[in-house]
Every structure is written in structure tokens, then in C-alpha cells.
Design brief:
The chain is an alpha+beta fold and about 350 residues long. It contains eight helices and seven strands; from the N terminus they run αααααβαββαββαββ. It folds into two domains: about 140 residues, no CATH class; about 170 residues, Heat Shock Protein 90, CATH 3.30.565.10. The strands form two sheets. Strands 2-4-5-7-6 form a five-stranded mixed beta sheet, covered by helices on one side. The protein has a two-stranded antiparallel ribbon with strand order 1-3.
Length: about 350
């Protein structure tokens, strides 16, 4: 892969010089109406150009910029002046004794000040032009590299948050199963099956960036069924869905912590009959998710310092930036969550 990249860069450099040489030869050949002279003089001139350009880009710049810029400027100007004299001498000895043809003035000496200055500026122009190209390319590469590193960092953080969420969920579920086994409940086998389905979803779907919305909602329904196996008739869950689920996608395991939190609030309070409301609406590539449950005045939010809800808020920020809305109302008698998020890959992490 590295060798291929080197060959590709080499081809780009060769094409650049061939195109530049061709255009310059055509330009001066047309100006003098002498393409043979233009070609021969450009052979000499471009030989000097290439030496100076690569000396500047790959020797001076890496060693002297940005810490020794004064030394860099002095060295560059001195080397360019020396190579300018080399170019003038080579042109005079091997190409033409007609000095400074562009000036259209006869009798100019080979080291005429204006001639040397024009040649000197010509060398600096090429160096400045190629340096600007090099800096631009490096800047674009660094931007992409920075973006890749940022994306990888966010991807790693999302994976870490998911890995924290899953043990948190299974810990709560296994506690439920443990309670049923202590009671020797005939609901325990059904609980194991439900738990198996949930684990399968987490393992095979939880690692994906997005899953069909239908699968995520089915996962939530399985979770609710599993919790109801423990609490039975003491808890009444109203779960409503409006809108079309087909062809919509969502980040997996994103909504579950709110469901968990709703059950935590609702089932830990001292009420004989509990009602939990879960509402999902799909409208114009937006998902509106709501949960609501009652709670007592003396309820202590044991989940406030937990990782589930905290991690979910962090995931929402990583996935959607500012393109989501989360409202949590925690009153003495009710706990309500309203979440609005975009669907179908409209999140900044879906482009990885």
C-alpha cells in the first residue's frame, strides 16, 4: 500500500512538470515564433527549477520552518541566486548567445543587472508557486487526518458507552430473573427465553451503527414484557406507536435507558397500582419518544448517579450534535421524558 502511494505521488509530480514544461514551451515558442529555442531554453531552465523546488520542499522547509525562518529565507535566497547564475551561464554556453531576448534590446551583457533580476525573480516565482501547492495539499491532508482521528475518537467513545450500557442492562435483568427463581415462579423459563432474545439483539445488532426502527421497537417491547413478568398486575404499561416504521433506521439501544429509568421510578415508589406510559411517534423522518410515570414525594432517584441515563445523553450528543431535543421533567409526582431525534442516517456518526 505504501509503495503504491509513493508511485502515485511520483506520477503526479511527473505529470505536473510535464504539463508545466509544455505550457511554458508553447508560451515562449509562440512569443518568439521559435519553438526549438523555447524548448531548449526550457530544458535548461526547468532543470534548475526542479533542483530548487525539491531542495526547498524536502530539505529546507522540513528542517528550518517554522523555528528558523530567518535562516530559511537567507539560505533560500542565496541558493536561488547561485542557481540563477548557473542557469544564465548554461543558457549562454549551450543555447544562445543572444542574451535576454525578452528585452528585445541588443548588446546586453550576460550578467546585466536587469537580466539577472528577471531570471532571479523567475526562479522565485516557481518556488513560491510550488510551495503554495505543497502547503495547500498538506493542509488538506492534515484536515482530513484530524477529521479521521476525531471520528475514530468518537467511534471509540460510542463503543465504550455501548459496552457500559449493556452490562448495566443485563445486571438489572438478571436481578429480575434472580427474584423469580427465589420465588420458584413458573415465569422463570419465559424470562430466560426473553433474556436470550434480548442478549441476541444486543450482541448481533448492538454493534451496528443503525438498525431498522422496527427491530429496535420490538426489542423495547421484549424488554417491557420481561419486566412485566416480574411485576405482573401491579404495573400497567400503555405502549403506543403511531406512524410508519418501515424504511426508518435508528442507532441501536438508544431508547432503552429511558424505559429502564421509567420502570425504576415507577416501580420503586409505594403505590399499589402503577401506570407507565411509553409513546413513539414517527413523522417526517423524525422520531418523538415519550415516557411518563408516577412517583412519590419521598422517592430517591437512585439512578441519578448511574451510568445508563448519563451515557445515553452523551451518546445523543455524539450522534446528533445539536440536532436533537431532550426534555426531562422530574416533578414530585411524575417523571416525564420527551426525546426528538432525526431518523434514517441523519446523524453525524452515520458517515463513518
Amino acid at each position: 500500500m505504501k509503495g503504491f502511494k509513493v508511485r502515485k505521488n511520483t506520477i503526479h509530480h511527473i505529470l505536473f512538470w510535464l504539463i508545466y514544461f509544455g505550457l511554458n514551451t508553447f508560451r515562449w515558442g509562440r512569443y518568439f515564433d521559435d519553438y526549438a529555442y523555447s524548448f531548449n531554453s526550457n530544458v535548461v531552465e526547468f532543470s534548475i527549477h526542479i533542483i530548487l523546488v525539491y531542495f526547498n520542499l524536502y530539505f529546507l522547509l522540513p528542517r528550518l520552518i517554522p523555528n528558523k525562518y530567518l535562516i530559511y529565507i537567507f539560505t533560500l535566497l542565496t541558493v536561488v541566486l547561485a542557481m540563477t547564475f548557473v542557469r544564465i551561464i548554461f543558457t549562454y554556453e549551450f543555447i544562445t548567445t543572444d542574451v535576454f531576448k525578452e528585452a528585445e534590446r541588443p548588446g546586453i551583457s550576460v550578467f546585466d543587472f536587469n537580466y539577472v533580476l528577471a531570471a532571479y525573480i523567475g526562479q522565485l516565482y516557481v518556488i513560491g508557486f510550488t510551495t503554495a501547492i505543497k502547503i495547500t495539499i498538506d493542509y488538506v491532508k492534515n484536515l482530513q487526518k484530524t477529521k479521521d482521528l476525531e471520528n475514530q475518537s468518537l467511534e471509540n467513545e460510542l463503543s465504550m458507552l455501548k459496552s457500559q450500557l449493556q452490562p448495566h442492562f443485563f445486571f438489572n435483568t438478571l436481578n429480575n430473573l434472580y427474584s423469580l427463581t427465589l420465588e420458584k415462579s413458573n415465569k422463570a423459563p419465559e424470562t430466560v427465553i426473553k433474556l436470550s432474545e434480548l442478549m441476541s439483539y444486543v450482541i448481533y445488532q448492538g454493534s451496528k451503527k443503525e438498525v431498522p426502527l422496527h427491530d429496535e421497537i420490538k426489542y423495547i417491547q421484549n424488554y417491557i414484557d420481561l419486566v412485566l413478568l416480574r411485576f405482573g398486575n401491579r404495573v400497567n404499561v400503555l405502549f403506543s406507536i403511531t406512524g410508519v416504521m418501515e424504511n426508518h433506521y435508528i442507532s441501536p439501544l438508544l431508547l432503552l435507558p429511558f424505559i429502564e429509568n421509567s420502570f425504576k421510578h415507577g416501580t420503586d415508589c409505594n403505590l399499589d397500582k402503577l401506570s407507565l406510559y411509553v409513546d413513539i411517534q414517527i413523522f417526517k423522518n423524525k422520531l418523538i419518544f415519550k415516557t411518563r410515570n408516577k412517583k412519590t414525594n419521598n422517592y430517591i432517584d437512585s439512578n441519578a448517579k448511574g451510568i445508563g441515563l448519563k451515557n445515553t445523553k452523551r451518546r445523543l450528543g455524539l450522534l446528533f450534535g445539536d440536532d436533537y431535543n431532550l426534555i426531562i421533567n422530574n416533578t414530585p409526582h411524575n417523571y416525564t421524558v420527551t426525546l426528538k431525534i432525526p431518523l434514517n442516517g441523519n446523524n453525524k456518526m452515520s458517515h463513518y
